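Closing statement on the iron/sulfur cluster sub-project.
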Amino acid sequence: MDLLNTLVDKGLRRELPTREEALAVLATPDDQLLDVVAAAGKVRRQWFGRRVKLNYLVNLKSGLCPEDCSYCSQRLGSKAEILKYTWLKPEEASKAAAAGVAGGAKRVCLVASGRGPTDRDVDRVSKTIEAIKEENEGIEVCACLGLLSEGQADRLRTAGADAYNHNLNTSEGTYGEITTTHTYADRVDTVHQAQAAGLSACSGLIAGMGESDADLVDVVFSLRELDPDSVPVNFLIPFEGTPLAKEWNLTPQRCLRILAMVRFVCPDVEVRLAGGREVHLRSMQPLALNLVNSIFLGDYLTSEGQAGQADLDMIADAGFEVEGAGTTTLPRHRADAVAGCGSHAGGCVTESEGCGSHEGGCGPCGEAPEAEAVPAAEAPETQVPGARTDLVAVRRRGAGTDLAPNA
Ligand code: SF4
């Protein structure tokens, strides 16, 4: 297939495909899906071999957010029955992080709900980063606290953060339909602030929110331009009690095509399979390892993933290997570029269901304005055949509970 040969050649040369080529990947029929996976897999192996980086999420503060991101179970007015708690103490966060590290994670992603951190929040997170670094030698820490204010990225960097996550989520053209309390430009600005402070930038997207193929290509091309070191790809987890609860429009095949398109457009970047993989890819998850070189281990921010051991078994059974702590994730040319500007390697978080994906820190001390009722579904209902609404499991263990974390 000429298209795939062209895309492989471009990916091996780190050359940007055309928009038409990216759109054509999304339009390939199911009977050519394995050809698409094999082609994107060649690009993946060129830059990352058969390594899979494991990342571990610690939700430092859950729910109670004053922002209105439609996809998010932690948004203002969300009726999703998620865990809600304010800031974990540094020792609590460190204990949760240690579980992920023991399970094989080389990066810990510290996430807090909300619009953005106060300076006091940055103090708290700085203490948490220090505690985690002290107890887990060589571990990478990524912070995901929302929109940053002047000087906050520098302070996080000084505290030892390696990376900062802030997703674009969707195209600039449709951003206003998903969120009204902040703008696409706000998000781009925060990623730039992180990069300027020498933090490794992590920024990705959420697919499955009713966007068009053109929107998906737009956001992925914008990410390529933004040039983060890692790109998390989330698949919407349509939580009951959120405006997008009825938006079940992803099939495993569509998810694989989206991941392949991201790999072709961002060939040498850490592409991370993030929230929604169990719900939407289901038994096709192992195939996705041919496209991404990074996943989250265990649970997400507000939802439960498959057992951590099942993640490890899946990687081994599919013929991949967990990336060791002493291995540099990024290809040499990118890692050197990052080191040259005083930052580290890496990328970071996110998921679609909660905040991580997103953006933001919090309102003061976890207080949110009075919640207004959210209609069951503000968006038109869509449900593809085979949708597994029963697979959405609210997180009831790990951070914020007395139960052991899944790692
Ligand atoms: S994605 Fe982040 S900022 Fe948006 S509603 Fe959720 S927690 Fe708040």
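The two ends are 41 Å apart (CA to CA). With this model delivered, the sub-project is considered complete and its resources will be redirected to Aim 3.
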